[in-house]
Design goal:
Distance between the termini: 37 Å
Number of strands: 11
Largest sheet: 7 strands, mixed
Radius of gyration: 13 Å
Length: about 130
């Protein structure tokens, strides 16, 4: 299984970015998948998750600004981010589970416990 993130970059506050997670050896249609981020000196935290059936979940900090989705034809998961703020800065990681088709209610707490596979991350920097 390989997960490869892309789409990171530098934007000004209020800007937008779209991240992608291309999966190989893994189908994005089956299990829970998610996005996590890690700011310098901070713990990795959950951002958004999507069930095998496409139901979505967000942490409060990004609700209304971020949208998680899947492109089944391309076997990718995406994260559209709008109204970006400096506190959104960090490395964004794609995560995929191999057990749960519906993300557990605790999906955002402990990425190592809740998910099986991880990408290498893509940097997002929001700065004026």
């Amino acid at each position: 299984v390989q997960l490869v993130e892309s789409g990171g970059g530098s934007v000004q506050p209020g800007g937008s970015l779209k991240l992608s997670c291309a999966a190989s050896g893994y189908s994005v249609t089956t299990y829970c998948m998610g996005w996590f981020r890690q700011a310098p000196g901070k713990k990795r935290e959950g951002v958004a998750a999507i069930d095998g059936d496409g139901s979505t979940r967000y942490v409060d900090a990004v609700t209304g600004r971020f949208t998680i989705s899947k492109d089944i034809a391309k076997n990718t998961m995406t994260l559209e981010m709008h109204s970006l703020q400096p506190e959104d800065t960090g490395i964004y990681y794609c995560a995929a589970d191999s057990t749960w088709t519906t993300c557990r209610s605790t999906w955002y707490r402990d990425y190592l416990y809740e998910f099986t596979y991880f990408g290498q991350g893509t940097q997002v920097t929001v700065s004026s």
